[in-house]
């Protein structure tokens, strides 16, 4: 049976030597797993979410090669084929692979969130990006109001950025 640990190992190998990217997906994975557990996802939903969190940025390398950009729209385009190859080679079920690829293709799409796994992946990625990109507090508050839907994601956002910081950028 294929496991999340196999995906983690494969992604560390995929980004070997790129500590920044590895740290990013590990942080997103940690937040996604915690939010998913606290929000009561089923074991199947949590499996898909965890795999998507680990692989959500798998399209960056090809985006940079093809478009000289790591922009979200390119990641969403280039990520699913790379993830599909990896996950199929690890023996994951087609249903899992298809949903993970859909999530990768929409992880920067904040408009219409399609299910709790999508909402949590977006929230977990934002929690990490807010820090890594030193986002202004006004942007963080705006995204919280317009995008965040889970109680746990909102609590983490408040604890990390809003409750502890009165103004300026994310620490």
UniProtKB/TrEMBL annotation:
Gene3D superfamilies: Hypothetical protein af1432. Coiled coil: none annotated. It comes from the Bacteria. It holds the Pfam family HD. SUPFAM superfamilies: HD-domain/PDEase-like. InterPro entries: HD/PDEase_dom (IPR003607), HD_domain (IPR006674). Residues 21-111 form the HD domain. This is HD domain-containing protein. It comes from Sporobacter termitidis DSM 10068. The lineage of its organism: Bacteria, Bacillati, Bacillota, Clostridia, Eubacteriales.
């Amino acid at each position: 049976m294929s496991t999340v640990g196999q995906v983690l190992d494969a992604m560390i190998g995929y980004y070997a030597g790129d500590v920044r990217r590895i740290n990013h997906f590990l942080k997103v994975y940690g937040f996604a797993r915690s939010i998913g557990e606290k929000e009561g996802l089923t074991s199947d939903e949590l499996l898909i979410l965890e795999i998507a969190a680990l692989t959500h940025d798998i399209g960056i390398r090809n985006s940079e090669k093809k478009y000289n950009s790591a922009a979200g729209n390119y990641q969403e385009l280039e990520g699913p084929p790379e993830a599909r190859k990896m996950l199929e080679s690890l023996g994951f079920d087609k249903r899992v692979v298809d949903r993970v690829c859909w999530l990768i293709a929409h992880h920067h799409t904040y408009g219409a969130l399609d299910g709790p796994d999508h909402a949590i992946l977006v929230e977990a990625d934002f929690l990490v990006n807010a820090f890594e990109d030193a986002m202004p507090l006004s942007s963080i508050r705006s995204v919280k109001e317009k995008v965040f839907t889970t109680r746990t994601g909102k609590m983490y956002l408040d604890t990390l950025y809003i409750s502890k910081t009165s103004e300026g950028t994310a620490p």
